[in-house]
Amino acid sequence: MAVVYWRDNFEAATKEAQEQKRPVLLELYLDGCPHCQRLDRETYTDQAVAEALNTRFIPVHLEGRHHMDLVQKFSVTGAPTTLIFSPEGKELHRFAGFYAPQDYLKEIDKFG
Question: Does residue 93 lie in a domain region?
Answer without folding.
Answer: no
